[in-house]
Write a structure and sequence with these properties.
single chain, 296 residues, mainly alpha, DNA polymerase, domain 1, 3-stranded antiparallel beta sheet, 12 helices
């Protein structure tokens, strides 16, 4: 049911909405699962799907134990899909128009403190190619606050080692972020020594590759960072965004302006960056309650 519409929806997300690959995959996965649910529960075509199907599907997701955040994302995916079908004239009414996802509160992210950061960054040691690559990747993440997906998408041409910057760009915006000297040093060593030895294919443009000289996957890097976190004895539950969160929180804690952090992170709206102000405020409140003699 609706395979042709899904193909058109994918083209729309790619060409008109300019969605990232992760967002596109999430939308298509959410819609596919919903269509399967509807097919298994009596809907013969997408035109037969009404508001009751949406409501019962949300109830089904609750039964499965899905979080409010997941349900909110799925509702957003369905909103986008049915708005697209309405605009294309495939359906006459949007069954999601009165549907709202559950209200969610943004969780304040966990960050590593300065000591934990130093422990993590110090783990890759040695002059072997893997250690040089891993050291450069970890330093680059903390130096710039980029996402893991952005890190593995970087190309050689995105880096200017001479002045110590990286250039990040996608279909919606671009930004330039400086590197602190140690990060630039380790990245230079990787580019001058390790990468030429790893990459035998002259057409490979990705900055970081696996040990076979091919583009690194998100999962591949995730294994690397988990390995070094365990090796460093860090007990916190590290996620792909932990170094990004730590980068932003440490800048804010040391006096950086929220707007500058917003621009470095590539946030479209400053409301996304304000979560770090809440994190710092929460930290100070806890310290006050713990250490002020009259706060007990």
């Amino acid at each position: 049911m609706g395979n042709g519409c899904l193909d058109l929806f994918k083209i729309y997300l790619n060409n008109t909405k300019k969605c990232s690959k992760n967002t596109l995959d999430a939308y298509l996965r959410d819609v596919n699962k919903f269509i399967l649910y509807c097919s298994q529960n009596g809907a013969k075509s997408i035109e037969k799907v009404n508001e009751d199907y949406i409501i019962k599907y949300i109830e089904y997701l609750t039964f499965l134990g899905k979080s409010d955040a997941t349900k909110t994302r799925i509702v957003a995916s369905l909103h986008s899909y049915f708005n697209f079908l309405l605009a294309q004239g495939v359906i006459d009414n949007d069954p999601t128009k009165d549907i709202k996802g559950p209200k969610t509160t943004r969780k304040i992210p966990d960050v590593l403190d300065s000591k934990e950061i130093m422990q993590l960054l110090s783990q890759p040691v040695g002059n072997d190619y893997k250690s040089m690559r891993d050291k450069a990747m970890l330093e680059l993440l903390y130096a710039t606050g980029i996402k893991v997906s952005e890190l593995i998408d970087l190309t050689i041409s995105d880096v200017n080692l001479q002045i110590g910057i990286i250039h990040m760009h996608n279909s919606k915006h671009e930004r330039i972020v400086p590197l602190y000297p140690a990060a630039n040093k380790h990245l230079t060593e990787y580019c001058m020594i390790a990468r030429p030895a790893l990459v035998q294919n002259g057409n490979e443009e990705h900055l970081f590759t696996n040990m076979n000289g091919q583009a690194m996957s998100r999962q591949g890097f995730w294994k690397i960072i988990k390995f070094y976190a365990d090796k460093a004895g860090i007990k916190k539950d590290i996620t792909p965004h932990t170094l990004r969160h730590s980068f932003a929180a440490h800048l804010l804690e040391n006096g950086a302006q929220l707007k500058d952090i917003k621009d470095m992170l590539g946030h479209a709206d400053i409301s996304s960056t304000q979560i770090y102000a809440q994190l710092i405020k929460s930290k100070y409140v806890q310290s006050y309650a713990k250490f002020h003699p009259l706060a007990k």
